[in-house]
């Protein structure tokens, strides 16, 4: 029987727009969410991604993915948080972190310059 993939729910604010996102529940994301809420100025790179160099390194499980999709959230190396806004083929290795659920709206908001991102976990009310 195949094990279900556990996901963490996030809210990502880009500029003044809020997006829902999912993170894979793994060693890398667990280390990253300990830094949340995290507000960073992400820099433009290559006309297809925004990146931020984290002050702490994270554990990695990098793999060559072949295809990157708009809305994918990845870790490059052990310290570059990357969010993609174009779909393209790539030979680079990344650690998968998660994805923005409404990639179409995200692409329309992100633009081609540097932009502020805030990452935070969704807070669930206890009943």
From TrEMBL:
Residues 12-119 form the Cyclophilin-like domain. InterPro entries: Cyclophilin-like. This is Cyclophilin-like fold protein.
